[in-house]
Every structure is written in C-alpha cells, then in structure tokens.
Specification:
alpha+beta; three-stranded antiparallel β-sheet; 11 helices; 46% helix
Length: 276
C-alpha cells in the first residue's frame, strides 16, 4: 500500500526495510518522534535516488560495439572499410573508432590487407577468412606478390616439362600433386596461370597435339606445352613447335589414316621438306 509523506506518495517497495520496521514500532508507541522519523525517511530516499543517478553504465559503448560488429559480420569474407562502417552505423567518428578498438582488443574482429587499396583499414570478423578477391589468392602473401613462390613454381614446371617432353596443364598438375612436389597446395587453375606466364616469358611454347610422336598420349587438338628449344628465339621455336599443326583449324579432324592426315597434308610435307 502506498502511503503519504510530506506531500508525496511513496511506494512500499522503495522504502528501506529497516525504516518500515521503525514505522511499525512507532505505531505501537505514542512517544515516538514522528518528525525525526519523517526526516530520516526523506534523507534515505534522497540518498537512494542519488546513488541511482551516480551509478555508472557498466558498458557505455555496448550499443555502438554491437552495431559495428553486426555490420562487419554482415560482409562475411569480403570485410569492410572503416569509413564504410561509419556510414553504415551512422554514429560519430569517435564512437565508431572506440568501438572498433574495443572489438579488436576483444579479438572479435581483425584487420586484413586489401590488395586493392592497402592504405585503407579493412576489418573482418575473426570467424571468416579473407576471399581471394581481397588477398589476391595464393599469389600474394601479407598483401604482397609472392614472387619467390611464383618463380619456384615456374622453375619446377620447366623441369617437369623438360622431363616429360610435352604435357598438358592437367598432366603437369597431376604430376606435381602425385609426387607432392609443391610445399604449398596449388590448384589446376594456378598451374594454368603459371603456364600462361611462362609462355609470355618465352620459356615454353603452347601448341596443339598432333597425336603423333611425342604427342601420342595426348588427344589430337588438345592444348599442350613443351620447352622452347631455341632458348628464346621465338621465330624459330614457333616454326618448330606450332607450324603447321599448332595453328591448323582442322587439327581435331586429323588422324594418321583419315582424309585429313599428316601423310596427305601439303603444309606438313613442306614444313618437313620430305615425302612420305
């Protein structure tokens, strides 16, 4: 039951139990000093209200941290730039910066390097791994092009091709994988990229299989690779490896006993300068 004290209604659950006991005792004694009791009650209530006002918020940045963490998590493995976080949560710069620092200290988010713009701070939730679009894939390490890894793959690929005489991208990848020659896992797509780079370096030549001689194990018309035997003379190497079969549009129809075959090809005869 609420009761009235000096012009105001006071709820029972806000009155200290000790004062309620005193009030109950006073009701039994006509000599109890009512003025002193009321003054003490008012003082106790004022002190209680002051304590509530002065009690600090245990987590003043809690809401800001939650908003920042949620927007970072929503970007998953792509992460988000610091300025985009500020625009997304629509909070003050200082509040967002403090929230980011706190989340980073708590190891809830991490700073990652974005190869598209290394100067900007890029954040990601710790449970995600950066996508290749962000890191550059296996060709990059800590945001920098891993030239040592690339050159080691090139050297290894060159030795394997020299050993096999001629091979496809799939054949090279299978050889590396089965023999566990790479200390870092690489994909067939990476091997194709390495081979393309080696072609541009003029280290190897890209040709089409004729199905004959060294190409017997490779289906006719399939793209394959062989060492540039001239050591960089692209004109001579091109004549030796890619003419006429390497550029023939009918190579897929060419068979030893077919209508189109090396024995009936005038270009092939002219290239070899011999008669079958």
């Amino acid at each position: 039951m609420p009761w009235r004290s000096n012009g105001g209604w006071v709820q029972e659950n806000k009155v200290a139990p000790s004062l309620i006991a005193i009030a109950f005792g006073a009701m039994l004694s006509s000599s109890f000093p009512w003025f002193t009791f009321c003054a003490s009650l008012e003082l106790e209530m004022i002190r209680s209200q002051d304590l509530k006002r002065k009690r600090p918020d245990p987590n003043p940045h809690g809401d800001a941290e939650l908003k920042v963490l949620n927007i970072i998590k929503s970007k998953e493995n792509m992460g988000i730039w610091a300025n985009d976080i500020k625009r997304g949560v629509k909070l003050g710069d200082r509040t967002v910066d403090a929230a980011i620092r706190s989340l980073h200290d708590k190891k809830l988010i991490k700073l990652v390097v974005n190869i598209q713009n290394k100067a900007k701070k890029h954040y990601m939730a710790v449970e995600f791994e950066p996508s290749p679009e962000i890191t550059g894939g296996n060709w990059y390490s800590a945001g920098n092009l891993d030239t040592d890894y690339i050159n080691s793959l090139k050297d290894m690929s060159s030795k394997i091709i020299r050993k096999l005489k001629v091979t496809t991208a799939e054949g090279l990848f299978d050889f590396i994988t089965k023999n566990k020659l790479s200390h870092v896992d690489c994909s067939s797509q990476q091997i194709r990229e390495i081979l393309k780079s080696m072609v541009l370096d003029n280290t190897i030549l890209e040709v089409k299989s004729t199905g004959l001689g060294e190409y017997y194990s490779i289906p006719v018309g399939d793209i394959c690779y062989r060492i540039n035997v001239t050591g960089g003379d692209s004109k001579t190497a091109g004549a030796m490896a890619s003419i006429p079969c390497g550029v023939c549009p009918r190579i897929s129809q060419c068979t030893p006993d077919g209508i189109i075959s090396p024995s009936t090809c005038v270009y092939y005869k002219k290239w070899l300068n011999v008669d079958f």
